[in-house]
């Protein structure tokens, strides 16, 4: 079975260009998180399984329907299933996880498997996947690596994360081989908690304004 690359989420993420990676340790920040993302028209959030509140956060953020909520750092089939049951609309993994990919394809759920080498990318394409996470981007050569890999994998696009920040993100999103960039630099719980979201809102607005200028 092959992935359905016509899924609306692929188009929406390519339009948005920013995929915030968010690790929840305090559920009281989620209302402010949603408010800031909606105000800045970044309606995506990837909640990572790096805390034991991941499922609670996915469920709460998915309830309003204002955001397209996904699960990140998904390493097992059990995590993928529980994320989807709690409202996740897409799945991001740090590596090629066959069980997770098969589950997502079977249910027409967009899945972004983590890749770093030509072998990884080839494995992803064998499932029909044409958009892969490239992680950790800075360690594995960043834009130079993506440009080189795009030679043989001319029909694949990349969603890089790792080492991307407010200083270099524009170089990435201006590259034709890249659908969007991910990272906690886009919005984070610590920035929200600092001053009830003022700093977080300012950071996100600056990123969005840079993209539109």
TrEMBL record:
Pathway named in the protein's UniProt entry: Carbohydrate acid metabolism
Pfam families documented for this protein: Aldolase
Domain of life of the organism encoding this protein: Bacteria
GO molecular function: lyase activity
Keyword Lyase: yes
Keywords assigned: Carbohydrate metabolism, Lyase
Subunit organization: Homotrimer.
Record family assignment: Belongs to the KHG/KDPG aldolase family.
UniProt-recorded name of the protein: Kdpg/khg aldolase
Species of provenance: Trichococcus palustris
């Amino acid at each position: 079975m092959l992935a359905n690359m016509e899924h609306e989420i692929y188009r929406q993420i390519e339009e948005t260009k920013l995929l915030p990676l968010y690790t929840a340790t305090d559920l009281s920040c989620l209302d402010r998180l949603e408010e800031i993302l909606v105000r800045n028209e970044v309606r995506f959030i990837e909640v990572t399984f790096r805390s034991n509140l991941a499922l609670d956060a996915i469920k709460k953020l998915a309830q309003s329907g204002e955001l397209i909520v996904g699960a990140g750092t998904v390493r097992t089939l059990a995590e993928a299933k529980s994320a989807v049951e709690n409202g996740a609309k897409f799945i991001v993994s740090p590596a090629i996880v066959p069980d997770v990919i098969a589950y997502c394809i079977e249910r027409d759920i967009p899945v972004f498997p983590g890749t770093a080498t030509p072998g990884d990318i080839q494995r992803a394409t064998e499932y029909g996947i044409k958009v892969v996470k490239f992680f950790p981007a800075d360690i594995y050569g960043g834009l130079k690596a993506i440009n080189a890999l795009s030679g043989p994998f001319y029909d694949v696009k990349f969603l890089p994360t790792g080492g991307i920040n407010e200083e270099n993100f524009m170089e990435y999103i201006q590259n034709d081989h890249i659908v969007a960039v991910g990272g906690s630099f886009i919005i984070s719980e610590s920035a929200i908690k600092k001053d009830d979201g003022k700093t977080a809102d300012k950071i996100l607005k600056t990123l969005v304004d840079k993209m539109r200028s």
